[in-house]
Design brief:
The structure is a single chain. Helix content is 19%, strand content 27%. By secondary structure, it is an alpha+beta fold. It has one domain: Jelly Rolls (Sandwich), CATH 2.60.120. The chain has a six-stranded antiparallel sheet with strand order 2-3-4-10-5-8, with no helix packed on it. A four-stranded antiparallel sheet has the order 1-7-6-9, with no helix packed on it. α2 packs across α3.
């Protein structure tokens, strides 16, 4: 089937992070890794907050794993720190052939939506061994979105495993659903949301690891 194409206005407003209490829910805790990257670059909490467009208090909560940033804000933070989201998954791995078992892969949860668990990235690659590819399954709850637009170097593609997604790239919006695939150049501002009533699962591949 063909994806339905519509026009959408690009917004130039900076994404505003929303706070959500982590509570006892699962998912990879990334605060310590973000703080370590910030300290390695000798950037103060206030300086980083000013550079990424959020409050010092919000960043402090992120580093202490008390809140999750949106996917867009997380991308802005790691970009400012000179790392990428893939590195947040990184664990030592000496295997020649890596098998990541179903149900045992690392999950990174981002900001929650009022209706559900927000967006969760499920890593499909052994990050220390992969330097060109980044591959995740994006689990997108109904009503959840990237809360803004992302742009970086490279190319990316996706394949919708379940549900539907509204993908906006350079002001153009396409609706894709189960069985559809898509491709775009990563330097174009892009973001997405789940307009459906069920969780969307998308196999998402980027190259290089700039996301």
């Amino acid at each position: 089937m063909q994806a339905k194409v519509t026009k959408a206005r690009r917004t130039k407003k900076s994404p505003k992070p929303q706070s959500e209490d982590l509570g006892g829910e699962g998912g990879l805790l990334i605060g310590t890794r973000l703080k370590h990257a910030r300290l390695n670059r000798r950037i103060s909490l206030r300086e980083l907050a000013d550079n990424v467009g959020c409050t010092e208090s919000f960043l402090s909560k992120v580093e202490n794993d008390k809140v999750r940033p949106s996917l867009t804000m997380l991308h802005i933070i790691v970009k400012e720190l000179g790392i990428n989201i893939a590195k947040l998954f990184s664990e030592p791995d000496s295997r020649v052939v890596a098998v990541l078992k179903a149900g045992k892969r690392i999950m990174l949860q981002t900001e929650q939506s009022p209706l559900g668990k927000g967006i969760t990235l499920e890593s499909l690659l052994p990050i220390p061994h992969s330097v060109l590819l980044e591959a995740n399954i994006h689990h997108v709850e109904p009503g959840s979105s990237t809360s803004g637009f992302i742009d970086h170097k490279g190319e990316e593609m996706g394949f919708v495993l379940e549900g539907m997604l509204e993908l906006t790239v350079e002001g153009q919006t396409v609706k894709v659903q189960k069985g559809d695939s898509f491709f775009f150049h990563s330097h174009l501002p892009h973001g997405y949301r789940n307009p459906g009533t069920t969780t969307a699962r998308i196999l998402w591949v980027n190259t290089p690891q700039s996301f």
